[in-house]
Amino acid sequence: MGKWISMFLMAVIITVLLFWGLAGLIGRPDELLFVIGIIISLQCSLIITLLISILEKLPKKK
Predict the structure, then answer these.
(1) What integer pLDDT is reported at residue 22 of this predicted model?
(2) TM segments (predicted)?
(3) Which of 11, 17, 29, 54 reaches 20 to 30 Å from 46, CA-CA?
(4) How is residue 17 annotated by DSSP?
């Protein structure tokens, strides 16, 4: 489970840096849309990480 937490944190950091980088290239974004976009990205990465963790814990069929 520890590697999935580190993968989630890495995804969070990359997402935030990507959003700040794109905002710097585009110009000053609308603050509301910027915050909503970051929140949606973080939630999606958390859901994907948790689903992978659950799939690994399921018993394998032989």
Answers:
(1) 67
(2) 7-26, 32-55
(3) 29
(4) H
Asked whether residue 1 is assigned to any structural domain, the reply reads no
Contact 45, 8 (CB under 8 A): yes
Query: pLDDT for 22-54, tens place per residue?
Result: 666 666 656 667 767 777 887 788 788 888 888
Task: Report yes or no on 2 lying in a domain.
Answer: no
Residue the block writes with tokens 């603050």: 31
Given pLDDT bands bounded at 50, 70 and 90, which one contains residue 1?
low
Q: At 53, list the tokens.
A: 């963790």
Specify if 62 maps to a domain.
no
Look at residue 30 in the predicted model and tell me its pLDDT.
66
Give the domain extent around 14.
7-56
